[in-house]
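User: Predict the structure for this protein chain, please.
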Amino acid sequence: MRFSCKRVPVRFWVIALLALARFSFMSMTLGFQASWTMFTEEKITIRYWPFCKLSEEERQFKTDLKSFGIWFNITNPDCGPRYKWKGSHKAIIDNVQLFGQMVGSIPSGIFVSSVGYPLYLLIYCSIVLSILNALRGTFVALQWELLLVNEFFLGVHLGASYPAIGQWTARWAPTNERAIFEATHLGNAIGSTMMKKMSHYLGPHIGYRGLYYYNSGLTLILAILCFLVGGDDPETHRWISNEELHLIKLSQRQKVTRTKCYPPFKHILTSAAFWSLNILYFGMMVANMYFFSRVFYQFLYEFVGINKETLDLVNLLPYASCVFGNIISAGLDRFLRSRNITSEKIIGQIFTVVSHILSGVIIIIIGVAYCNVIYIIALITIGYACTGASVVSCYRNYLDIAPNFAGFMYGIMHFFGVTTRLIVPRFMNYVFMFNRGVLGWSIIFLLGGGCVAGTGIIYLFFGTTTCQWWNLKLADQFSVYKKRGSTEEESEDNPSQKSKGVQKDEADRAPESTSSKPSTKEVNTQSPPSTEKVPKRSFWGRAPESTSSKPSTKEVNTQSPPSTEKVPKRSFWGRVASI
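Assistant: Here is the predicted structure, written as structure tokens:
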């Protein structure tokens, strides 16, 4: 049987492109950090004696920073020409890229929420990012100030790409499959892991320029695939089937529209549900981006004493558990929502407890596990799997409360979320200035786990999964009212369209009692009914009563008394009762 793209749901291609975008963007974000040791002449570093490798006597006396450290030389592999760069240059360049992401996230969110075209913005950012990333190797050889400017614009386009991804997801994701679309965040975890492994194993063979060209080529392929396979929204896609389009639009229930208008800034920025989501997202960035991916790696190496070769293999297990947790959580969320087993609010609260509160408690427990290597690795694996539940509790929530303005909200979330790259490393350095032993690591784990669990508790009180009233755009409200009003007037003027208006307003119309109609026994059949037209009713009120519209007393038999039953009231959108 010949393969055809029409046989595969278009949503599958969109999910694949989202995962590829997150993978390539995370690899590009960490590309400069991973290649730092490949082009610098810095060969002297400091290593701290692992606390777990010390004897009982040494643990009692060596409690300060200097007693744990020794200096030794590192022979870096040959990855190309090296330059006299300092560690301060690396910190400045990382901070400039972070500042660029913060600058580009909010304007991009406003653009995709008001003007639209999230896919085209994503294609533009991918092309520019591939060019800027390929120029990294050239600027490294010339001057570090040129690389500084390049990293700023690279960060701006990285920050602009994430709101485009959020708005594109809101247009394509059916309600029950939003967690599956957000499960593409596993591309971030895979991208960060692959970049570290490639720099370690492939760096000596292809050099740091080869890593840059690899990321640029991958991002350029993403732009080409988005142009060929993707669509800006389901209504304009080339080969989407009518069944799939009907499924997406029916599940969204007219909560996602293409009407162009600015986001309701006042309502969004004063919404308790939105700010509780920002806090929840910040806690997940602390847990996912630092503790389970970086801090524990450093803890096992410096405190426990596992060598890097063994640690590289052991570190693959938590990343695999994170991918497994993402997939299981997304599938379980779709199952619960499709079967209507419980309410959406309870589903969100259950996954919040798992992703934030439980993972925060695990972080605290690791701080008191000390030198039990098996327990530490097992807890890290379980905790990283628990963070996979964030695809329901954290990442899909902005699609639930206001999918029309998902890009703008995701831009604000990304703006505050990336600040963890400034806060967490500086907090750890401040603690290690006083103690790098048991007390220092215990403080870090206690405060980090408390922060993650505390953000989940705040969300349980103030968060919601209900779509907010300000998600409906004003232009859409006016079009609905205008459509309803014009339908009523056309059905009254044209008798042939009257049946259509009856079918459309049947749900909103109050039931008419059969006793309100004149009985055939009471009306003289020899007298013909009145041929005068009933005056039209205005849009905002009832029609004025006219004596000519009432049945004539001459036509009605006076011997039969009129009906004493009251006529039920008509609703606002009901049609004029036929007489």
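The chain has one domain: 16-471.
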